């Protein structure tokens, strides 16, 4: 039974909930987020043939807890610990071209970050234009030459501006330019859910509304 103020939407093999005022749609609830991350962890193991040389780099802010969750799932499946490290790519973004080289290099100086010869899996919450991923690649390459760089995202909303694709995707969500994807995680927001937020309603709820 659906409570007052909400409408049930059936599609893509799952039920979604939409506020009747049309402001937002719940794309993933806590259980759906768990299932998506579990599938991503299995796919990472399958593609890489195990855990040897794997390093998970979670893009600040919400990519970091996602990376730690995926690392925990991999340890649960394989009994092997995989490093999960937070990566702040802000100094490498193309809208900060005035930053000094020293400032830029500090973006990838997370303790324990070793990339030389490693199989790097970048983890982020929302994949949009690709500019954040490009900045992350620049940060990684400043630290060394990995064997390869892979990308895992909870949500891919489309509208790429660069020729970059994700290797692992929790959910593909076609969006318009007037919509936002808002990711909330228990570690940062007290709840696990992903919302599709329509124009003019971004201020209704805090969380990871991504540009």
Please summarize the sheet with the most strands.
6 strands, antiparallel
Question: Count of DSSP E strands?
Answer: 11
Count of discrete domains: 1
CATH top level is Alpha Beta
Helical fraction equals 25-40%
**CATH topology (fold) name:** Rossmann fold
Instruction: Order the strands across the largest sheet as they lie in space.
Output: 1-2-3-10-9-11
Oligomer: single chain
Mean pLDDT: 84
What structural class do you assign from the helix and strand content?
Answer: alpha/beta
Number of helices: 5
Span between termini? 35 Å
Strand portion? 25-35%
Describe this structure in words.
The protein has a single domain (30-177), classed as Rossmann fold (3-Layer(aba) Sandwich), CATH 3.40.50. The chain has 5 helices and 11 strands, in the order βββαβαβαβαβββαββ. It has helices spanning 30-48, 63-78, 101-105, 131-143, 186-189; strands spanning 6-11, 14-19, 24-28, 54-59, 84-87, 119-127, 148-156, 168-172, 179-184, 193-198, 208-209. Mean pLDDT is 84; it is low at 1-21, 100-109 and 202-206.
Q: Can you give keywords for this protein?
A:
211 residues, alpha/beta, Rossmann fold, five-stranded parallel sheet, disordered N terminus
Concise overview:
This protein has 211 residues and is an alpha/beta fold. The protein contains five helices and eleven strands; from the N terminus they run βββαβαβαβαβββαββ.
Topology readout:
Blueprint: E1 6-11, E2 14-19, E3 24-28, H1 30-48, E4 54-59, H2 63-78, E5 84-87, H3 101-105, E6 119-127, H4 131-143, E7 148-156, E8 168-172, E9 179-184, H5 186-189, E10 193-198, E11 208-209
Parallel strand pairs: 4-5, 4-6, 6-7, 7-8
Antiparallel strand pairs: 1-2, 2-3, 3-10, 9-10, 9-11
């Amino acid at each position: 039974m659906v409570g007052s103020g909400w409408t049930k939407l059936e599609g893509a093999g799952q039920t979604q909930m939409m506020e009747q005022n049309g402001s937002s749609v719940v794309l993933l609830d806590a259980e759906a987020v768990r299932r998506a991350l579990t599938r991503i962890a299995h796919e990472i193991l399958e593609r890489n043939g195990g855990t040897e040389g794997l390093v998970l780099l979670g893009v600040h802010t919400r990519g970091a807890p996602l990376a730690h969750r995926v690392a925990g799932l991999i340890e649960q499946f394989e009994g092997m610990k995989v490093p999960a490290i937070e990566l702040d790519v802000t100094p490498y973004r193309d809208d900060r071209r005035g930053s000094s080289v020293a400032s830029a290099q500090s973006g990838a100086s997370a303790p324990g970050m070793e990339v030389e010869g490693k199989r790097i899996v970048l983890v982020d919450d929302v994949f949009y234009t690709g500019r954040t991923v490009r900045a992350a690649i620049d940060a990684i390459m400043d630290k060394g030459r990995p064997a390869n760089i892979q990308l895992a995202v909870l949500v891919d909303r489309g509208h790429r501006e660069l020729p970059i694709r994700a290797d692992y995707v929790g959910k593909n969500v076609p969006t318009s330019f007037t919509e936002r994807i808002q990711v909330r995680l228990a570690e940062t927001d007290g709840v696990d859910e992903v919302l599709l937020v329509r124009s003019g309603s971004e201020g209704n709820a805090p969380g990871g509304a991504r540009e």
